[in-house]
Structures are given as structure tokens and as C-alpha cells.
Amino acid sequence: MACASKQTAAWPLCIIIEPNLSVFFCWCLLHTGIGADAMSSLLNQIRGSAASSVSAAPVDVSNIRKEGWIMKESAMIRTYRRRWLVLTPDRLYSFKSERQYVNPTEDVDLKLCGTVKSADDLTNRQFTFTVQVPERNFFLMASSDAERNEWVAAIGRATTESRRVRSYSEEVEYQEQQARLAGSADSSGGAGRSEPGNTYAENAFSNVGATTEKRATRFV
After folding, report:
1. CB atoms < 10 A from the CB of 195, how many?
2. Contact 123, 140 (CB under 8 A)
3. Nearest Cα residue to 116 out of 85, 94, 140
4. Where are the domains of the chain?
5. DSSP state of 63
6. CA 61, CA 149: separation in Å to the nearest integer?
7. Distance of CA 117 to the CA centre of its chain
8. Least packed by Cβ within 10 Å: which of 22, 38, 104, 113?
């Protein structure tokens, strides 16, 4: 009985600390021989591994374009919380503490950003704006209309530049892929290979021409 009371005493703590795991842990305590101390140790290990998995690399402070306090709407309970917002050329971060550039509460890839605009009509609050990405719309609130406009303009510029970098990178990757395919075709002696200096359209028309010529020869 003493053992049972020791185990059940750990249940409320488990429910308070980790509600998503409480049912599983209580079941283990009831139906297995695992003691409360062992379960507590397992809980600490899971919590530690989870914290390390969500920790992000420190932000490069030499590449910050804009930073400052802002109010950000929580994703779960929809209340606004004070956050230190940091903008870099390709990402938007929020932190709980000023100039503490580790473990951001949010990390937004600006390459995926679709819209940055005022959001007073959506939030029924003054000086708010939204940063929209495919999986979520972030709502933030500045202290004044001027501050809101500064953030919208800065994030908008970074988003546009980030898209340009992505497009250029994709083009370089495509050209490198074409060069690899051309080298492979040269080594195998295959027909219809593309030249490394040709554009995508030129290569496409060349391949179509070669296919048409083969079909014409077949019917002669």
C-alpha cells in the first residue's frame, strides 16, 4: 500500500507538467512494474530531448536588419504577448528576451512569405499587421502606426529580396544539372544532348526537332 500511495502521489505532478503524456504514464504506473521514480526520470529525459530538438541555432547578429519589441498573437490561446522581433535578410524571428538570440519562439522563412500588410480590420486592434506563410498567418501589433509601417516595409523588402535569391539559386542549380546531363550524354554518345551554354528553351526546341526528324525518317 505504501508503494501504491507513492506511485499515485506522482500522478498530479505528471498531469500538471506534461498533460499530453499523463494518461500514458498513469497507465504505466497502474499496469507495469515501473516505479514512480523511474517514470519521473523518463519524463525528464523526454523533456530534455524535446527541448534540444526545438532549439535553433543562434541568429547571426551581424546580419540583423531591424529589431525591437512587438506584441505577437499566440497561436493557441489568441492573446498578445510581448516579443523581441528580429528581421534578417531571409528570416523573421521572435524571442522572449531582448537581444538573446537563441531558442526563438517563432522562426519564419521569408522565402515562403506570401503577404505582409496591415491587419486592423482582421484583428479589430490598432497598429496590427500580418505576415502570411502557407501554414499560418502571424498577427503582430506595433506601438504606433509609424512603427507598424516601418515593420511592414522592412519585412516586405526582405521578402522580395529573399525571393530573388531563391530564383537565382534555382537557376544556378538548373544550369548545373544541365551541365551534368550534357556530360553524361557526351560520355555515352547519346543523341539529342543539350549544350551547357544553351538556355532551357533552346534545349527544349532542340530535343523536339530531333524527335520530329526521327519520326520523319521512320515514315520515308
Report:
1. 12
2. no
3. 140
4. 2-48, 61-164
5. G
6. 23
7. 20
8. 38
Measured between its terminal Cα atoms, the distance across the chain in Å is 96
Question: Cα-atom radius of gyration of the chain, to the nearest Å?
Answer: 28
Q: Does residue 85 contact residue 93 with C-beta atoms inside 8 Å?
A: yes
- As given in the structure block, the three cell numbers for residue 108 are 519564419
CA distance 11 to 55: 28
| pLDDT, one tens digit for every residue, the chain (220 residues) | 444 444 444 444 444 444 455 556 566 666 666 666 666 666 555 554 444 344 456 777 788 999 999 999 998 888 999 999 999 999 999 999 999 999 999 999 998 998 999 999 999 999 999 999 998 999 999 999 999 999 999 999 999 888 777 566 666 666 777 677 777 766 665 444 444 444 444 444 444 444 444 444 444 4
Using alpha carbons only, give the angle 61, 64, 65 rounded to the nearest 5 degrees.
165
SS (H, E, C) 195-213: CCCCCHHHHHHHHHHHHHH
Which class would CATH give 61-164?
A: mainly beta
Residue 59, Cα to own-chain centre: how many angstroms? Answer: 14
Instruction: Name the residue among 191, 169, 173, 171 with its Cα closest to residue 182.
Output: 191
**Cell numbers found for residue 21:** 503524456
Beta pairing partners, 67: 86
SS3 content of the chain, % helix, strand, coil (to 5): 55, 20, 25
